Structures
1.
Amino acid sequence: MKKTKMIPSMQIAYVENECPNSQSILFLHALGEEKESYEEMLSFFTDCRCIAFDWPGHGESGRSERWTLDAFTEVLKDVMDYLNVDKAWIVASSFSAWVAQTFTAKYPERVAGLILLDGGYYDPSPYHLLQIPFHTPPVFPDLQSLRQNAVEYAARIERLGVHVSEQVKAFIIRTRMHLYRYLAEENAFIPKTDQNAMAALGEEINCGRFLFHHHHDIPTLLLLADLQETPAGAASLLQHMRLEAKKESRMDVKEIPNSYYLLMLTNPEETSALIRAYLEEHRRL
């Protein structure tokens, strides 16, 4: 991934490639993740202007006092304004899919199309089975413990039936470890993500009402993973919502076989290929 740059006025960290005259694509990471999660996928889009940034409270970006969808919508707009992006395709994972839809509802003229990666296709507020209690990520006493946890994370994905190459496995482990920073005063590795942000934004999603794809004609592709770890009793509910999503005539829905929830980590090549095909279909590249 290219060297991180900073938007000083916003304290937003970002990376981009050098294709100023091509179609712009913004890559928005999931809650608790960071821009580095798209590192592998960005390598498949060398002919586009690709931008990935850390949300406030994540990665290398600064903190914030406002943990709401509206606030994050304005962050997205300000990032686009600062980088002179008038209109872009938006690739958004999980939590960010709801941010992307909120942004599209407010600024439709700035969005060429939406690519939602396992998020944003259902209204979570009525589905109590999906409301997982907020869990504080663990703290690790040393680098060895952190690495072992990352290795176990990759192994758990493989046990679910997801086939990942050694290169992708190494990427997953590296990305998991990158979510932590060493804090000298605690002599431990702690999560980079602001835990207040995690809790507040998770609650924001659970309490909101979203189905904005019903109300615009902007091209929208929903990519679904077929293997997920879900709360007890929620699997059938997720399947029901997927069937409902596939009935939505304004949204194209594709499922990636042998894949896991964080598609940009476990299935970067397949996910990128489907996105490129969709963009080419709409003649945006």
2.
Amino acid sequence: MVKIRLTRLGKHNAPFYRVVVVDSRDKRDGAYLELLGTFNPILKNTKNPSEKINFKTERLIVWLNKGAQPTETVLNFLKQKGIWKAYLDSKKKPAKKKAKRKLSAKRKLVKKEKKHRPKKAKKPVPNQLPPSESSNQ
């Protein structure tokens, strides 16, 4: 399963996280498929806590559409930024219906005639083996 989760970077007591797409069986800080954003929890002088989080929105939605599952923490970040709602709204769009092809008058007549044709009776299959004389005696 593919997950969208955090991987830790930074010094001791100064964490910095990347939001990455990774196979769920891989290590937390191991190789990843794609970098989707960053999270800096110790960023100072920010009035809005969502400024600590940066995402590549288009790529994130692509991975969600492919079936990648965000972890709880990443899901909370997505909800803070409003990306999760945008993703759910994009999924709810109804598929376009195919326009039915209009049949010409001639085709309608042919189609109607096919419905009312009598079905052909199947011919009975003759016995494959002729009766043997030895079995009658």
